[in-house]
Amino acid sequence: MQKGKPPGWLTVLKLNKGFSVRQQEAMLGFLFILPVLIVMAVVVYYPLVRGFIMSMSSLNYAQGATGEFIGFQNYIQALQDPSLINSTWHTFGYMIVAVVLEIVLGILMALVLNQVFIGRGIVMAIMILPWALPGVVSGLLWSRIFNPDNGMLNSLLFQLHIISKYQLWFSSSFWAITLISIVHAWSVIPLTTLIFISGLQTISNELYDAAQVDGASMLQQFRYITLPLLQPSIAVALTIGTVSALSIFDQIYVLNGTAISTRSIQMQIYLTTFKHINFGVGTAMAFLLTILTILFSFGYIRGFKRATV
After folding, report:
1. DSSP letter string, 75-144
2. Burial of 16 from C-beta contacts in 10 A (0-12 / 13-18 / 19+)
3. Which of 115, 116, 190, 277 suits a disulfide with 61, CB 3.0-4.6 Å?
4. Are the C-beta atoms of 250 and 183 separated by less than 8 Å?
């Protein structure tokens, strides 16, 4: 060892002849990941455990929180709450509309952008902008479009004589959920498009050349080559889209506030926790949402895994 030069970690480990090479490598690897484990423990695991304890404690500050352990009573109360049940149905509506739009439009845009043409880089840069915008900003932009008095949508439809008077777009629960879902999908479609582009680039052109020789049409090539080989990408996009839709909050709050007709599960968690100051039930709702998200993600992965085997 050279004088005046501090020994490296591997050198220090090798000074102890009692360790085998494999043990030395394992210890060195553990030392490398130790800072990450510490950060994860502080930022993720401790709040997770602390939150689970809160979800099983009496923490309704509106009625005098005692903090005592009450088991799964908060979970039972949450599952019996009509507001959470309605919010769950609304969230499923957001999820269905948004995910369908994200998958269908994402695939179509990926098919176009996967081709080489002049200005392709500029188009892709513009396409990514909605994904880069925060949810609040995108909600504010679309609120100007849906404004009932001077919004762009009302003005355009009125000038085209499609409507005879300006509409209140969020007066109906169905249309409110549909329009908010479109706004949410608008911000996620760039991400799903990039996922599908990466999937398309893994498909060999020789498969398409062979299909053309056999007389397959463009639609048949898409049906029998592109879609089957895109299944892993579709599974990823479905998982990301579902998780994002289940946690929708910003766009709803900006476009329609806390109206009962458009509340999502995430919004109901926020209102229960911070407006009704019932931290026990609110935390229980958050864990129920986490379980629901895991179930959907696991279902997608298992379903597509079986389809590709």
Report:
1. HHHHHT-HHHHHHHHHHHHHHHHHHHHHHHHHHHHHHHHTS--TTHHHHHHHHHHHHHS-HHHHHHHHHH
2. exposed
3. 277
4. no
> Could you report how far apart the first and last alpha carbons of the chain are, in Å?
55
Amino acid of residue 286 = A
Query: Three-state DSSP class for 60?
Result: strand
**To which residue do tokens 């990514």 refer?**
128
Other residues' Cβ atoms within 10 Å of the Cβ of residue 270: 18
Rounded-to-integer distance, Cα 178 and Cα 129, Å:
22
**Domain architecture of the chain: domains with CATH:** 9-55 (no CATH), 75-308 (1.10.3720.10)
Q: Is the dihedral of CA 225, 223, 121, 128 positive or negative?
A: negative
DSSP category for residue 43: I
53-61's contacts with Cβ under 8 Å and 24+ in sequence apart are: 54/279, 54/280, 54/283, 55/280, 55/283, 55/284, 55/286, 55/287, 56/280, 56/284, 57/280, 58/280, 59/278, 59/279, 59/280, 59/283, 60/277, 60/278, 60/279, 60/280, 60/281, 61/277, 61/278, 61/279
Q: And the tokens for 145?
A: 């479009």
CA atoms of 203 and 197, how far apart (whole Å): 10
DSSP states of 148-210 as a string? TTT-HHHHHHHHTTS-SS---TTSSHHHHHHHHHHHHHHHHHHHHHHHHHHHHTTS-HHHHHH
For 208-243, write each residue's pLDDT tens digit.
888 888 888 888 888 888 998 998 899 899 999 999
Measured distance CA(299)–CA(95) in Å, rounded:
15
264 pLDDT tier (thresholds 50, 70, 90): very high
Q: Is 288 left (phi over 0), alpha (psi -120 to 50) or beta?
A: alpha
- Distance CA(178)–CA(162), nearest Å, equals 19
The alpha helices in 214-262, defined as continuous H runs, are 218-221, 227-229, 231-246, 250-256
pLDDT, average across residues 194-206: 91
